[in-house]
Specification:
Largest sheet: 7 strands, parallel
Strand content: 5-15%
CATH architecture: Alpha-Beta Barrel
Number of helices: 15
Radius of gyration: 19 Å
CATH topology: TIM Barrel
Order of helices and strands: HHHHEHEEHEHHHEHEHEHEHHEH
Strand order of the largest sheet: 1-4-5-6-7-8-9
Helix content: 40-55%
């Protein structure tokens, strides 16, 4: 680690995600760090910040301006594509994330993504917000785009139970649906890259509490590989999957994703061994207990434990609970910066 900061924030984030040498460890947020406290500070509240690009950008900027992260992530939920694809979405008030009220597809055989998907308001707002943030920050920090993968989109469109039942009863039909849905994140990812995103989070919730590792291997792994084969190598892509993942991490290493954003339920040492240098690990901080309900000193301890375990890109495990105190997120930043300082001082001795 170099003695002085010599990289831009964007260079540092991209370099660290790719496993390269950086002047200090960056502070990365693959998913939302929007809080009610930040909404009050910026005047950009949910639900408007989900679909108004200026409010979306203002709230996302708080992740850097108020909290101190080296990234800004303007996609706060997982439902922008779902809304654009026809799901009935309840955007909810400032202290609640959006939810799907009704899944539009009971049958999906004839369904195709709409040709004007990128022109629908939730998607247009995200693309505009990315442009606003890139214009504001340039390379000072990294703008994190996000797309929802075909597995999660199938949950939204078909309903979880209906879709998972299809894995057993109509596997060929499910494969065809996933192939059609894969076009959605690929199209949006390309548009986000064109709007100025420096990094992409790919959220696909093939979680162990719902599907087996074998189902991931059979149905989703080939589509993730196909997606990454088409993706420019210079842009890091972070796979986000909630829940325990040790039983499928070996498959994740075969996808071509740059990094894996992991849940606190995964032992970091075991994940590092399984990743074997093929995936950079990001995340690990528990949301409901540590970030939402713990004291600042307890947050710092949790960060330091992850750093000592070898996870150097410490971040919240998922979008933070909206009532998370900003002081706890700022404690994450300070803890990582203190670790950087100690590493630098040790290197100078």
């Amino acid at each position: 680690m170099a003695a002085r900061e010599q990289m831009t924030g964007c260079e540092r984030v991209i370099g660290a995600l790719k496993g390269g040498e950086v002047d200090r460890l960056p502070l990365i947020t693959p998913t939302s760090v929007a809080t009610v406290e930040s909404m009050a500070a910026t005047g950009a509240y949910f639900p408007e910040a989900h679909t108004d690009p200026h409010k979306m950008a203002a709230l996302a900027a708080a992740g850097h301006e108020l909290l101190g992260f080296d990234t800004t992530a303007p996609y706060f939920s997982i439902l922008l594509e779902a809304a654009a694809l026809g799901c009935d979405v309840d955007w909810n008030p400032a202290d609640a994330m959006p939810a799907v009220k009704k899944n539009p597809l009971e049958r999906w055989d004839d369904w195709r993504p709409p040709s004007n998907f990128l022109d629908r308001q939730p998607v247009k707002a995200l693309l505009k917000a990315i442009r606003l943030l890139k214009d504001r920050y340039g390379n000072r920090i990294a703008v994190v785009g996000k797309v929802i993968g075909p597995w999660t989109l199938a949950y939204h469109l078909c309903g979880v139970q209906n879709f998972l039942l299809g894995l057993v009863l109509e596997p060929d039909s499910v494969r065809e649906l996933l192939d059609r849905l894969l076009a959605v994140p690929l199209q949006l990812a390309a548009a986000e890259l064109g709007a100025g995103a420096d990094v992409l989070t790919w959220a696909d919730h093939a979680t162990s509490d719902l599907v087996s590792a074998a189902a991931y291997r059979e149905f989703l792994l080939p589509r993730h590989q196909q997606a990454m084969e088409q993706w420019p190598a210079e842009i890091p892509v972070i796979l986000h999957t909630c829940g325990r993942a040790t039983d499928r991490l070996g498959y994740f290493t075969q996808t071509g994703f740059t990094a894996f954003h992991f849940d606190s339920r995964n032992p970091p040492g075991e994940l590092l061994n399984l990743a074997n240098g093929k995936l950079t690990l990001v995340g690990g901080l528990n949301n409901p207990q540590t970030l939402l309900n713990s004291r600042v000193d307890e947050v710092r301890t949790a960060v330091e434990e992850l750093l000592r375990a070898g996870v150097h890109l410490v971040a919240p495990e998922c979008a933070v609970p909206l009532r998370t105190p900003n002081r706890n997120l700022q404690a994450v930043v300070r803890a990582v910066r203190d670790f950087n300082r100690r590493q630098r001082e040790h290197g100078e001795k």
